[in-house]
Structures
1.
Amino acid sequence: MKKIILVPALLLMFAGALLTGCAGGSEKKVENAKEDVNDAKKDLQQAENNYAEEWQKFKDEYEVKISDNENKIVKLRVKASHETGEAKAKYENKIAELEQKNHRLKERLESYKDEGRDKWEAFKNDVHHDWEELENDFKNSEW
């Protein structure tokens, strides 16, 4: 008789322990999930702040470079003004080309609109590539 009562009692205790343990685990899982969501929100906010800082730094850097190029172009115009004939025309054409490329770079920088991280990376690489080409044009010009 004791065995008959003992087995169901043990089963009830075991089932109770399982249910109690499961309920507590679910609450912990929900709590952990909430913490994970909050952490993800914080990470996203931090990434957005870093992205904004990176964009501003990039823009400031290239605005200075473009301004430096504008100063170089003014100096080249002064040099070209001392030339005559074909040499002067050649220099003025080259200066106009450099000025146009510099202006396009400036317009691209000013017209950039945030379209996500992937497009930002592509834009940044394109601007850097165009910048290097422009710098090579300045260096390789016959002055």
2.
Amino acid sequence: MQRLLKSSVIAAACLGVGACATIKAPHYQSSVDNVQALQGSGGKASVGTVKVNEAKAAELNNISLRTNTIESPYGDYAGYLKEALRADLVAAGRYDQNAPRAINAVLTRNRLEAGTDKGEAEVAARFTVTEGGKVLYDKEQVAKHDWESSFMGAVAIPRAVQNYGAAVQKLLVRLFADPDFKKALGG
């Protein structure tokens, strides 16, 4: 009987380990809303420094859903945000890597959850626009996004991973629609 109990515990532990996985988040896709918001802006911009808040770096770069770790396809989540900025600027015809005005960001919140009924994501960053060392814009933007989830991990986890990009899109449309941001870009 004890042998059977030990075997059951070992089998359960192996199944638990086997269920753990590392999943790459999908690459960022520009949204129509973001491109339209940027097209109403003035000049072109480059993407400068994008990093995570150093005091919370481990927390901001560690997204896990149930027993799965979700990794950024760009190395870390600062890289994800940087690529999202670049992709939206390119799609709107507003990107110039040599532009004197640079958009910079510090990721301050990065949360993704796959609940049994509802999934939620929250992403926030402090954005600045600089030109020649002068700060033209400095403001934190926050975006929350939710969707229908499921008790079943096989449904909830892929939905959450797919919806992370939508949360980042919402964050950037808030930035791009901000009149102060448009003014800082010369619009």
3.
Amino acid sequence: MQISYTFADSTLGKILVAGTEKGVCAVSIGNDAPALEAELRAKFPAAAIDRAAVNDSRMRRWSAAVIAIAEGRISTSPPVDVDGTAFQMRVWESLRKIPVGKTKSYSEIASELGASGASRAVGSACGKNPVALIIPCHRALRKGGDPGGYRWGVERKLELLEKERRFEARR
């Protein structure tokens, strides 16, 4: 597998966007570019991983789309190239159907998938989401509206939700 990656700055911090010929395979958010790169390499140990060339138009487009999502200027999501269990894939598809500016509880998502009582499994799938922002796991909350956890920090989750609410209010 050949993976190219790039970094972009956002109000959320550094964002690593990595992709294959098929689509984005990883989006990570953090404060330390070397740590994000090390995480990418650990996740794909058998892949050939290189930093994208400055003139790589595909990676520039994908990165710009991810940054637009991060900054509340929602754009078309880039294609994804992700693997997961059958249940994870169903959860991730369900998350992509939650409208911008809206949220659902982990238990609501589980019920919609015909898996009532599997809210913890939904939360686990959210935590394993390989493409933050593109698959909007930040839109999944605990019952009652508590934000619950977020792999990239609860503060970032709340910031994303607020940006999406403001975006929808302007529409």
